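Bug #77: duplicate submission created two jobs. Keeping one. Sequence:
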Amino acid sequence: MPAERIDNYYSASCNRDERYPTLEESVATDVLIIGGGMTGVATAVELAERGSEVVLLEANRIGWGATGRNGGQVTGSLSGDAAMLRQLTRRHGREHAEDTLRWLRWHGHEIIERRVARYGIDCDLTHGHLFTAWNAAHVPELEATLDEARAAGLADEVTWLDRDQVHEQLATPLYAGAILNRRNFHLHSLNLCLGEAAAAASLGVRIHEQTEVMSIESTASRLEPPGHRAPTRPALRTLSVSSSRQAPTSAAHGNEIERTASAPVIARTSHGEVRAERLVLAGNAYHRLLPRQLSGFVFPAVLGNLVTEPLGEDRARQLIRDNVAVYDSRMVLDYYRLTADHRLMFGGGTNYTGREIPDVATNLRPALERVFPSLAGIAVDYAWTGKAAIVPNRIPIIGQLPGNILFAQGYSGHGMASSHILAEVLADHLHGESQRFETLSRLRHLRLPIGETLGGAAMALAMAFHRLREK
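Kept job's structure:
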């Protein structure tokens, strides 16, 4: 059944809440986007700005998934940077590889800032971020990251803080040093997504919420995993989607869609259908479409977040003097920031098996009080979980399947910036500018054909090893 957004800080403090109608007819469009989170909404804006006719379908509400459940940090971090650098260097040379990584780190910031300014999106965008060294052994890694940021032209934006300077910024006994990055920022992620959805609608995008796709039909004779070539003589084929309900036939609508090669993709819902020249899958960790083609590349990790009672501005600034967002250097990390109404948002406790975290507030409280001892016993007003799509080698995945079906997924916890970058890449590709798409879609990924449960267990085992190393 379609669901409302979960009861968390983001949904309680969102500053707009347009409701978009359920699809109850047959429509045709240039591009159909399935998924109303940050990837889908950002792609819709990119395409609409280029003049494409777009329909966006969301099974629940706009921003229902990770977009409305994350930590709200926009940083230049790439979990899979080392793996990407190796692959890109082999294919394109070192200089091109380093240029591509710099672009992937920082271009998303520009897109978000430009969009917020252009459409007047109120999302509490605040610059400043600390990347903290958990202990002295992590300092060399951060110093290398600092050098990379300076080489990327951010010398005026980044500063090294020693232990004492960190403690001037944060009321914590932890950390051996930190990078202060003024280019990074934090924001209200749901308000950003809702603002971009409103912008997309103003540009003519048809948005339909609470509209679950039941099946996809493609003119490709078969849909293979990424890397396979499309057949030369397409024939319509129905692709099953995990659901206990049956999609209606075209005749049930009294306006049957002509199944020709000019309509490569048909998506059926409970009460309607969409015929599109191109389809973009943008479900990320909550995606369940085309499991045979796309399973085994990403595994959902469950992250917990809590938000305290209001602290008041003075107490909040005693905790984080300059209102910067923070995360530490461990593989399984803590991340936190202040909200616009002077609460502390604190996240972590990641469960890589994909299972829900019981009693999130109780689970996160020891980590919260370790970072900020002065908050011992603080009341927690909101606590929730969300899923991040983790890729085994941490390289974001973008690609195209036969039948004009494109997809982007697997941001491994860094989706705010990466989703906007890949949305631009998808839109450029659909409008004939495919250089970036070709570069990124050819990156190789480890596929674990062992199912989500066993794959999650394997990921959890690997993370347990990292935890032991970092103690």
